[in-house]
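Running co-folding for 3,4-dihydroxyphenylalanine.
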Amino acid sequence: MIERLKELRGEAVAAFDGAASPQELEEARVRYLGRKSELNQASRGLKDLPEDERRAVGRAVNEIKNELAAHLTAATDRLEAAAGGAASSVDLTLPGRRPWVGGKHPITRTLERLESIFAGLGFEVATGPHIEDDFHNFEALNIPPDHPARDMHDTFYIDGDRLLRTHTSPVQIRTMKSRKPPVRIIAPGRVYRNETPDASHGSEFYQLEGLYVDRGVRFGELMGVLTKFLGELYGEAIAVRFRPGFFPFTEPSTEVDIECRICHGRGCPVCKNTGWVELLGAGMVDPRVFEAVGYDPDVYTGYAFGLGVDRIHMMMCGVNDIRLYHENDLRFLRQV
Ligand code: DAH
């Protein structure tokens, strides 16, 4: 009996290992492990054997069944893998995983966009120091020590005279002191204020200053250039509004609004229900500023403007909190 079982085991192993197709394997399984197989009959006949033989045959039958089950599994895997594996666990048709690449910060991208638009309008880029002195940040811009405009420009002082610049306007002064007209520049960069941060104020943000000085520059040109600029940035259809305003270094002065891009003029928290959002300050350069830099106000006129770069991007993408730009949270940066 045991001899016959060993023979069977040898035949079955050869049949499983040698099966060349799933059908062949299935036939072998039925023949050697199926209900009517010799092995199964042997299990069923165990009860009729004498006690001592029953134990030896029973053990042999169980061992062989386990061994054959292992060969069957191995043969099944082998045939599936050879078939390219409908049931295999690797899906070769899935697209690959793309490696994560870094990108430019949205403020950097906005600055580059603004610079490119103004370059197309004939402006060149000028820069100045972030640590300024009282003369360039205030005095020369017609903001004397007791002027109420200083209230809005509280900043971080390094000593009695030196401070972190509160706006990019001092670059106007430095540029005019070092060149003769015509001057046509933009000055992008970081500025600082001693502010309690909230959704629309930060202690650091970005501005872009513009200045054009020549003989016979008029207010109409300022309106034309800014309307053109805003059209390039937000699309020709954007509504632009010029409102009278006040700045110590321009006369007359204007504040420039666009229709709120969050609510399209209907009114929302971002535009404080007015339907308009202020983007720029601008005006004709005050003669006092020309005097401070040694330009003759009887010969030259010019216009200047300043805008908040963060604000420009917020309006472009519908961002409602300026603090998001400085938190470096990738969930935000990847979206905008
Ligand atoms: N420097 C101003 C500020 O930070 C912005 C500004 C307004 C700049 C009007 C200008 C201008 O050049 O003409 O609030």
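Result summary
The pocket of 3,4-dihydroxyphenylalanine is lined by residues 167, 169, 209, 247, 250, 281-283, 304-306 (CB under 6 Å).
The first helix runs from residue 2 to 18.
Job closed.
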